[in-house]
Write a structure and sequence with these properties.
By secondary structure, the chain is an alpha/beta fold. It has eleven helices and eight strands. The termini are close together.
Length: 259
């Protein structure tokens, strides 16, 4: 199981949309996926049709220790499972910060899960902040995927998340974490700005920027309110097509699961 953190400290850039929809598109192709919702807002949890308050999050296990496997829930999608979040997880920011091992606590919980062959990929939906939860997720991940909105301020946010990645890597908390990819989101083909931002990112990060571009699409915004992925809610929409292409490109970049 490869652990992928989907992170950007800027909010509203498509982290949850990417975690849920790429996960669903991978699952559609027969790939086993666990989405770990590390955001106290629990949007990934509700986006797959589950009610956050009805299920235990990773909060108590993260604070007190224990087996994360018991928290894994089935969803209505074959091959897609979820470890949910809830508002209690917001308390981790304070409680974890008190411990000397706060950066590696999550890593110590989920890395051992690899030995049980529970999934091919775990996608972690991270909160929009530079706090303990997000940095802990980077310390636990094998790879980092950064969704980046096609706007000028997105470029500033990219510089910050890359700095955090480098800090985690160089601090010794997770020296093996790799910046796997940058996914351009909310692109508006009617404006020059989107293309300018895409060109700038590809110039600076030519090897990791995905060729697939996620368009600004109203169906992507509507789907979570129905507890559905985009491939269920609007399977022929431009958003569904884009996320299916992203999943295909993601798999093309990686070795076959379990090999």
């Amino acid at each position: 199981m490869k652990i992928i953190a989907i992170a950007n400290q800027k909010g509203g850039v498509g982290k949850t949309t990417t975690a849920v929809n790429m996960g669903a598109c991978l699952a559609e192709r027969g790939v086993r996926v666990i989405v770990l919702d590390v955001d106290p807002q629990a949007n990934a949890t509700s986006a797959v049709g589950l009610i956050p308050s009805e299920h235990e999050s990773i909060y108590h296990t993260l604070v007190n220790g224990g087996d994360v496997r018991r928290l894994i829930l089935n969803t209505k999608y074959q091959n897609l499972r979820l470890i949910p979040s809830d508002m209690d997880l917001a308390g981790c920011e304070i409680e974890l910060a008190r411990g000397d091992d706060h950066l590696v606590r999550l890593r110590h919980l989920i890395q051992p899960m690899k030995q049980y062959d529970l999934a091919d990929y775990m996608l972690m939906d991270c909160p929009p902040s530079l706090g303990v939860l997000m940095t802990s997720a980077l310390a636990a991940a094998d790879e980092l995927v950064v969704p980046l909105q096609c706007e000028y301020f997105g470029l500033e946010g990219l510089a910050k998340i890359v700095q955090v990645h480098d800090f985690i890597k160089n601090s010794g908390a997770n020296p093996d974490v790799v910046l796997e990819g940058i996914v351009m989101t909310m692109a508006d083909s009617r404006t020059n700005l989107s293309q300018l931002v895409i060109n700038d990112v590809r110039r600076v990060f030519p090897e990791v920027t995905y060729q697939t571009i996620i368009p600004r699409n109203i169906k992507l915004g509507e789907a979570p309110s129905y507890g559905q992925s985009i491939i269920d809610y609007a399977p022929t929409s431009s958003g569904a097509t884009a996320y299916r292409n992203l999943a295909e490109e993601f798999l093309h970049r990686h070795s076959p699961p379990n090999q």
